[in-house]
Records
---
Amino acid sequence: MLRVAAICLMLVLSAGCAALPSITAKRESLEERVKNYMQAQMDRKWDRAYTFLDKSSRDTVTLESYLSLNRTRKTSNTGFAIGEITMFPSGDQATVKIRMDVSYMGFNFKAISQAQNWVKERGEWFVKSDLQPKPYIKQENQK
């Protein structure tokens, strides 16, 4: 009986260890996407940053509106660090805490916290945006 319990315990532990590489791979691919997204923002390459938005965000805010919203911003990101990554059990959603350095009208603000929600679509990570289009900019998908 003790032998059967030991075998069951080893099977459970080995199954748990087998899942670790999958979680690590998902975390690494997410971290790489977050770095690229944040770097595009720092470089003010808004068309590139837009490609990181999830489908629902792109359906809400067109590229033209996104470019307009960001090109007129008075702030600029001058640095960032990825803090905590919390992966949902499903493995297709995550919350990423970012610390950003921001410059605004000659003032520098260090380590401003931001939480980003990321979702996996078609096998790749995308960020959910909370941007809303300006009401006076005509959206392509509006009728």
---
Amino acid sequence: MEIKFANGFFDSIQRIINRQRWYWQAWDFFRYDLVQGIKNIFFFWKVIWQYRSWDSSYQMKILSRSLEPLAHTLEHYGNEVDEPRLKKVAAIKRAIEILNRQSNEDYIELAERELGYKVNLNYGITGDGEPKKVTEKNHKLFDLSHELEDKEWKELWKIFEGQEHTHYIMLLDKAKSENPKTDTEEVWNKWFNGNGMKYWWY
């Protein structure tokens, strides 16, 4: 049997080859890369300007900033169906919230809100003459702030890591064994929680 290729196939190959020529690459640079690069400079300007290499809070600020347009675009222009898409948006926004709190070290304030009182600093940094009751309350605040910080740090990496897909397969197999007509999409939507940075796209 003789195999023939349509002219359109060779035309497409030729266009791909032509696209690699220097003048097309120059066009792409000025039309797309340069424009996007300038946009990126303005978008990241503040966090880049403030960046210092010795403190992890600056890395977290850059990461947090980079997730903001992803959350916005996925929420308002994403092509995915609503249920899993909005779960991704919620997970991204939660990651941004944690990154901002970690980089700003806001856990004392968070502990104060949870316990309903503020750190008593009336006795200075050394705490000379500080009543035992004040010391105990301050220690309780500091301990809770460290606990909350550690808890959210672990939560952040669970959000980035995502779920174990084998758990979904097990859940689906169980549902199918109980009801062969089980809707696969329904099982997925029930299992999926929006986590998994590698799959945050639109």
---
Amino acid sequence: MSTDVPNGARPVAGRTPLAALSLLAALLVLLPACGKMLSPPPQPRTDGYSGLVTVRAAGAELAKFRIDVRGEALRRTMSDAKDARYFVRESAAGPVWEVDPASKSYREATEEALFAHLDDFPLGADFNHAAEANRRGITKYHRESDAVFAGNACAIWRYADDPEVLNSPTTTYWMAPALGGVVIRKVRSVPKADGSDETTYFELTHLRAGVDPERFRVPEGFRKDGAGPG
């Protein structure tokens, strides 16, 4: 039997090596993308988070700013403007800087500036109600209820400044288990002489998990301003 093939035709076996190489090249290109697709999504406790903080009281907005948190690293950006100034620290023991992207400069800043409006707001994941009570030096506190805030189910923990005093000022923390135990709302109530309460709300919304560690560092090429904390 003849094994000849028609003119212009090639044996199938002659095309096999080229097809295999093309397939291998495609796999090499796709593997990194597949790895990203299969990797677990970022989590606040391991990858940090960013969000919008709004402070309001008596029907008025007192402050609004963005924060980035990753472990002990913190960044507080003053506004959503492209070149908005921000305060940043890379670690709990590290220095605090005020960075001005518009002038590509930075200078020393204070912890007070970094944590403005964030006093006593637990920023890390895995809120520990017992540790908070210990920090306050009290033993009497309680889980008030569960409720939903900004679409997230929260466990609400209430602490009185002095549990033994009637009408003591109180603070409640709204902790979202589905967000890694991040506190997304703090409500501070101080009784007034007329029987009403002066209540201030600290609310964390638009939370997104995953923050690049570079966001907590002064960008390369920025010059240091000799002026002290502003």
---
Amino acid sequence: MASNRSQHPLLYPRFAGMQRLLLASLLTFAATELHPFIRGSDAADTQASLPLAAHGTPFYFEVIDSHDAKYQGDTPAHMGKDGGLTVRPNVALGDAVYRTANKSTVIIGTVTLVLWDRVSGSLTVEFDPEPNHRIAVGDEVWVDLNPDPAKPRSAGGPDTATPPSAP
């Protein structure tokens, strides 16, 4: 009686282990090496291609949270958030937070947390206040989206640095 089974050598049961190993190797190669070509451009790549903000670009935001201390030993802090970013920010811990009133700009705090939500184009900033500055919920303050490294914040005190001009 004739067998209906194909006589191809790779279909023999004794080669089943080798077939699985070959298939696993091929899938691993495809997943790791061909992934960028198959997937195309990522949303993260789109955000990474945003132009860096020019030096001195202000990002205005409203203070939405003020607290004395969240944890034992903590210090007072304020938090604000706003959206509409169309450039890539370059804000770091320790950067200055400014307030402009009556055409006068003063440093009122230091950045202690910065969170960029790339999907919504928003920036959340938490900052510690400088002494003797009243900061209230609803105040409009700002940070430089890309501080000029040639003009570091002065170590002489919070108000001795020359802030970038606010438009």
